[in-house]
Specification:
This protein has about 240 residues and is mainly α. α1 runs antiparallel to α4 and α2 packs across α7. The chain has one domain. The protein starts with 13 loop residues before the first helix and ends with a helix. It has eleven helices and no strands.
Amino acid sequence: MNAAEPADLDMSWASLYRAGALSALLYVLLVLVPVVLVFVAPVPPTDGRELLEYIAAHKVVYLTELVCFVGLSVPALIVFGALAVALGRSNKSMAAIGGLFGIASEAIALALGSSPQSLHGGLVVLSDSYLAAGTDAERAGPVSAADALIAATNAVSWAGILTAAAILVLSLIMRKAHFGSVVGILGVVAGAAGIISESLRPMIGSAYLLYGLLLPTWFALVGWKLLRLDRRRTS
């Protein structure tokens, strides 16, 4: 074993640590792109009829935001897998539970196409149908369907709750596994805030933004720590 390699860190997984680090940075990038678009393009409305008209007028922006938010789950899967392995020697049980929570949550999110309110792939199709309709009566169907989809995307997200739970569980054991107390404490706060925010999402409105800020911050710090773990191999 390399003298620089800690006894409780398995460096045979160095490539996974590097993949996790790059995936965490990709996650942050996918969050930043829609945030920037918020400042350069109108915010999608939450009313069905207005949203369908918005999509027709800003389809590229809308699709970019949709792909970014749904696509978050792919790099997050790798991050949670890398963390579970990196933390395994410190506490195998909690690392396994946290990793399973995280991977399951992202798999569910991908299967359902989970995204923030007003973002859903089906709404693009409904927008096309709305534009193709020739009368108000024909447009009523797509509008009703759009309202239903908007309500569904703003409902309680079990995928989101599991993601927050994974962050909480994994962060509880980070201090003893070369991740430091700062990342661990931030993760505990983000995880607890996330469970509450996701559970009460239909009611808390803009207060959800607090968790929305903590989440990419935690991923960024985790990415940096995983990158440092990978570099131990050549130390």
